[in-house]
């Protein structure tokens, strides 16, 4: 793990103190709320899927994956600091993949970022990340946008990005791919 | 933290790391129970995933999360094709933006017993200039010509390809997707004659 990534991370934190504080505060609230304290058997699979590094106990995070309810959706938006838009253009089919930097800095990532990094060891689309993390699309876009800005995931822009129709080269590729299926 | 890397030694199913990756998407629309999910499942050969999205505020009064089903198949080592079920929002015209934007085109599954169910989708794609094909769900060939007459009578452009399609049969689904992509390509040639596309009506590829 390089010290430069640490420094980068510290810098990011310094740049966005308000958002971090707000998100932490909100997460703290839900941890102590007691609403999620009921035994949730679904927690186990989520934990199994992510036993990569010893990490602090964050039970509420797992239960967000297990049972998306209104309360958990509110909490999910709290991770994003209440933002609903990302600075990076992400379509639902845009592919993202974890890169070397994220692989080497898994231990110091926020838990939700860590989960994204694990998912994206194989390239995944934004829609897949949303489906597999059971988070609303808008939240995932903001989350992935943040991670892309920090250099934790690579975004593979689609030829159709920007609301345009896909270009002819891509269509030709789709066509020959379909014929091979 | 090197052990993290060793736990995931493989980059993934498609191609070697560093390969240029891109993706495309096709929308599958139609009425309830017409076979949209089956259609996608036939081609991706796995269960569909489902994501949730908040409909845009424009949808008016809809506050619940909408579930959008989709499947993904790798067409070549660097190209992932996504197939999205166009969600059944209460106001179909309001919430399709994210799903439809940038799509190659749409397959509208059409049940001849319930033609009205698919009309909304067809209108939407016509209005937004999104290329689409009509896939008639499992129509007996003897009634095909009648159905064609009915469809043309509905004011659907004669350019729109119409075909039979059994959503349960992979080859049938594949044919529908191929003819959609060919139609979309042609449409693209016609609509966007750029400086290096000087012969828009002769798409010989």
TrEMBL record, chain A:
Entry-linked InterPro entries: DUF742
Lineage: Bacteria, Bacillati, Actinomycetota, Actinomycetes, Pseudonocardiales
Protein name: DUF742 domain-containing protein
Organism, as annotated: Lentzea cavernae
Pfam families in alphabetical order: DUF742
Superkingdom: Bacteria
Start and end residues of each stretch annotated as Disordered: 1-61
From TrEMBL, chain B:
One annotated GO molecular function: ATP binding
SUPFAM superfamilies in alphabetical order: P-loop containing nucleoside triphosphate hydrolases (SSF52540)
The entry's keywords: ATP-binding, Nucleotide-binding
Keyword Flavoprotein: no
Keyword presence, Ligase: no
CDD domains: Ras_like_GTPase
Protein name: ATP-binding protein
Source organism of this protein record: Lentzea cavernae
